[in-house]
Amino acid sequence: MSETAHANRWKALTFIALAQLMVVLDATIVNIALPSAQQDLGISDGNRQWVITAYALAFGGLLLFGGRIADLWGRKRTFVAGLIGFAAASALGGAATNEAMMLGARALQGAFGALLAPAALSLLAVMFTEPKERAKAFGIYGAIAGGGGAVGFILGGLLTEYLDWRWTFFVNIPFAVVAAAGAYFVIREPSGSRNRSPLDIPGVVLSILGLVTLVYAFTRAESDGWGDSTTVGLFVASVVLLAAFALVESKVKAPLLPLRVITERNRGGVYLSLGLAIIAMFGLFLFLTYYLQLVLGYSPVKTGLAFLPMIGGMMVGSTQIGTRLMTRVPPRLLMAPGFLVAAVGMLFLTQLELGTSYASVILPGMVLLGLGMGTAFMPAMSLSTHGVEPRDSGVASAMVNTSQQVGGAIGTALLNTIAASATTAYIKDHIGGAGSQAQQQLVQLEGQVHGYTNAIWFAVGILVLAAVIAATFINTGKPGSTTVTGSGEGAEDELPIPVIAH
């Protein structure tokens, strides 16, 4: 291999990592800006979660398709197209004048992100094939992606407080332009690495329709109740659509998602437990943002800084605890305890009240949540390609990201619905005893906090369930006692991606 080609690979890594930083930034940056954007655009409390959900659902629903497009169309071309589209969608979001325009822009960001993310990881996989070099490349990529979560919270606060929430969208444009230009001139994709099997269009359509219907059913339950005929009909329709997707995938020659990828017990256990954990975590992001700003009166900057202990805990859990123990103990002995530690962190946050102390309740809760999640995520990522055939390694990596993104979409919708229902019931029961306007406002604030804590109790239960699934489904030994095939050795370095998610 020539010295020029070698140098170009490392230059290409710079632009790929920059693109990943932009995607990670976008997930956390919008959380901080959401209360301001909601007020300006007149978005209702029931619909506010769609600003997060529209992005997560489009991203999660299209990731498998995006990975397949990259294989077929060329990874470099897909990567550049994803960047340009993401920049355009960000410009649309920043210029939004109403709720529909904002939600449309977020869905477009998710769709182009689904092109961008698998193409970026695929490029790294095909350009860095020597094991030590590959590990170093994925390590650099992962470190930048992980740091992006923390930067997003702080940058979101600074932009919202000192400029305007719209700049949390506009800031993506220079990132995307630099990364696209650099990728176009520097990346040299190896020849002969495309997969030219025909596209599984029925699989794509059924998976997207099934997932959109499922999340909409959770959202609809908030306004019309869980027993409403339309809500029940939507849940039934989603089950039918996803069952039809599974049937199609078992019959077609080149399926979007070969069923052998998810039916192996270790991989299935990872996708299921990780998806559940993300359901719990994404909902919490939304509630804590609103609690800190609307109840405790934190500024956007202070809110961003308040989240840093959780990000720090996650990075310590993954790089110090998970990485050091992963070669010494079986994965389930890291994943199950990790999820349980995160559940204990959530238990702290069920104690939220109007005047709760950040230092005595929120801080330890966030640190434990981050430590537990980080410890569990590390072995989960390494297991996501456990035992796959080489031809399936890409879709197995995409599947773990899909379970995270869809988990985020469902988590935000489900927990927001639970919180809103509990808030409504609390206010209805207590507003009668409030005589003055000040007392009524106090009851409404108390109702909001009651809603948040109710939803967080559900999140605790979901994390315990994730721990049980990890302990029972995952039975592989410590690395070295089993063989993991395929090109998934960089999978564990994808760890920071769940911070997006968001």
UniProtKB/TrEMBL annotation:
It is a multi-pass membrane protein. The chain crosses the membrane at residues 12-34, 49-66, 78-96, 108-128, 140-159, 165-187, 199-218, 230-248, 269-292, 304-321, 333-352, 358-381, 455-474. Keywords: Antibiotic resistance, Cell membrane, Membrane, Transmembrane, Transmembrane helix, Transport. Its main location: membrane. It comes from the Bacteria. Residues 12-478 form the Major facilitator superfamily (MFS) profile domain. SUPFAM superfamilies: MFS general substrate transporter. CDD domains: MFS_MMR_MDR_like. InterPro entries: EmrB-like (IPR004638), MFS (IPR011701), MFS_dom (IPR020846), MFS_trans_sf (IPR036259), Sugar_transporter_CS (IPR005829). The keyword Membrane applies. PROSITE patterns: MFS, SUGAR_TRANSPORT_1. It is found in: Cell membrane. Signal peptide: none annotated. This is MFS transporter.
